[in-house]
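It would be a great kindness if you could assist me with a short task in structural biology. Thank you for your consideration; the sequence and its tokens are set out here.
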Amino acid sequence: METQIVFQFGPFFRAYKDGRIERFFGRDIVPASTNTGTTTASTKDVLIEPKTRMSARIFIPNSLSPNQKLPLLVYFHGGAFLFGSPFCAEYHNFVSSLVAQANVVAVSIQYRLAPENPVPIAYEDSWAALKWVAAHAGVGHESWLTDYADFGRVFLGGDSAGATIAHNLALQAGLGEDLGEVKLSGICLIHPYFEREEGPDYVDKCWMYVCPTTSGLNDTRINPFVDSRLCMLGCDKVLICTAEKDDLRGKGLCYYETLKESRWVGEVEVFETEGEEHVFHLFKPDCDKAVALLNRVCSFLNQIS
């Protein structure tokens, strides 16, 4: 007899009553490679924390000149905290394109996934990874960071749950958590996964599943709209990318309005894609609207602080 399914997230994730987990996205691995003449970015994989196996993929543009210091993007993949990987084709290709076109260095983080590692572990891993990156502003062992990254121009970015992580880390930095010599210039939130109370009967089953200790949709880790500390966001600029047919679009626009109305003194912008759905750019990277989205993010990363 077939084992009972206890939780399913679209065609991407399935959990069974007997504890078995199936992930149908993000399991493939694109090998890391240096400049071969056929790629626009070189990559290497690093192990950040041996105990937890937290890792990352570092990207540099092949057009890099000697002694050139570039803006640094720390990127967090999406996947509802349940699936996804910086090593899979969709994220490898997207970050490679960003790095080549924007001429930046990027570190794409592999945080631990729920339900085996429930939230807030994804946030904790991501903060630890950001601290690891920031440590290279002094003396670090990863030469691609010490040689090429400008730690006065650091950006956080992510899509979906990864955008949620990027917001939370920027807030953590703004509340005084030490990042040493790093200057957090901005955050780019692509189709962010935020929630808010939508009436007494509304329940976000995914959030409750990935974060079983949550207080509910008033939890500021997923609901920035009730967070009185929002004005402490620790960066100067925010870009929010939304998609017209994305169920989360309204929350992204609400984030824009809430941040504007707070006492935060930075600049916030919205870039909307008409006629497209959630994270469409990962699956249709060559379409005109995905190219336009990529161009807008690259422009954001190249702003002069």
Remarks:
- Helices lie at 89-102, 121-135, 143-148, 161-174, 205-210, 249-261, 280-283, 288-301.
- The chain has one domain: 25-302.
- Residues 121-135 form the longest helix (15 residues).
